[in-house]
Design brief:
homodimer, alpha/beta, seven-stranded mixed beta sheet, elongated
Chain lengths: 222, 222
């Protein structure tokens, strides 16, 4: 029988204890680090980057009241669709603006989308619109309604087109593609609109918006 | 003086040795893991996802021969610019196609860009073009030149617009924005074109291209 008092048993026991304690300390430290990492991970999950693509045409025009109206749609004979589609998603994006809406779109004729800008303006979102000068004159243009509601609109004076079709929402989300704000684009044409939350890309468009906003300042350019 | 033969010195010595050896083993393992991680990291760096935005107009039109011509530009009086700009970057993207070029653009009038498609077709890249039916009839349209060179072109027959302006290169890179392939878009209009390598987004546009390619098949639709 091995005696517990043997010198080598004590040596081994000491070595194992030391090893075990040092591992215990190390794993406690790792566990703490991992928990911290998981917290960061959850935080970044909660602000997950938007990355969506909307294709048009929609089969039917989405009901604005149903998707983003304060009281929903109360019309029993509503001729618009209550099924989610590309336009309803666009309503939600625009209606989600908290502080700032920079709209830089060639043609704005769609009354429902213009109404969402006016609604945002009324709830104190800073709405700024850049559009093409000649397109403000066409039948159905909503630019005059936007101006009448107090929204600042700037346009180019040159014969070349202000042909962008992008929107930056709260400096955080970019909508961009081929999509002009017309009824034909919604329910007739082949169109696309990307919704991207990529910070670096959004900032490039924010800068472009500021550049054009200054370039089209009527006080600078008469 | 402490005797080296003391039992407790031996216990401590054994413990420290055991601890040191176990740490050494652990750190060697970590180093190996880290090296493996760095190798993976370098690999993913090398296939870094493209994320660029090109804004137009350019001050001057970029010289196609200088940027992507086989022999560069040999014209001493070249009236095009040799400084990199948005158009020169677009030349590079299109010229970089190895196997497949899916072009879905409303208007194609720019001869230089059409020539790049023909050059890609000649080097056995599968080039497919979707464009707007009515726009193929306008003065300066390059659709007939593309067809004459043997490139497959499909167009919509409806009165609504095929208004997309996107290109998918090698199923890996998406070009998308407001930019039509016209001289006015290059050197006059306010336009944008994003270049995105994001796999998920690229695949959505590849699917859309296939959907339209089938929808506009003349054999199906007369």
């Amino acid at each position: 029988m091995i005696s517990f008092s043997s010198r080598w048993v004590k040596v081994c026991f000491g070595a194992i204890t030391f090893g075990a304690v040092s591992e215990l300390v190390y794993f406690t430290y790792r566990k703490y680090k991992r928990r911290k990492w998981q917290t960061n991970q959850n935080e970044s999950e909660s602000r997950k980057v938007t990355e969506e693509v909307l294709f048009f045409p929609d089969d039917r025009v989405a009901c604005k009241d149903y998707f983003v109206g304060e009281d929903g749609c109360n019309n029993n004979d509503c001729r618009f669709t209550h099924f989610p589609n590309s336009l309803s998603r666009l309503y939600e994006f625009i209606n989600g603006a908290k502080g700032r809406l920079d709209v830089c779109v060639f043609v704005i004729c769609c009354i429902d989308l213009a109404d969402l800008l006016i609604a945002a303006h009324k709830r104190h979102v800073l709405v700024r619109v850049i559009s093409d000068g000649e397109q403000t004159e066409i039948t159905g243009s909503q630019i005059w309604n936007l101006r009448k509601a107090g929204i600042a609109v700037r346009t180019n004076k040159s014969s070349f087109l202000m042909h962008h079709k992008f929107v930056v929402i709260d400096d955080q989300l970019l909508l961009n593609g081929s999509f002009n704000w017309t009824r034909q684009a919604i329910s007739g044409n082949q169109e696309n609109l990307m919704a991207l939350g990529n910070k670096r890309i959004v900032s490039l468009y924010t800068n472009e918006f500021e550049r054009l906003w200054n370039a089209f300042d009527p006080q600078k350019n008469g």
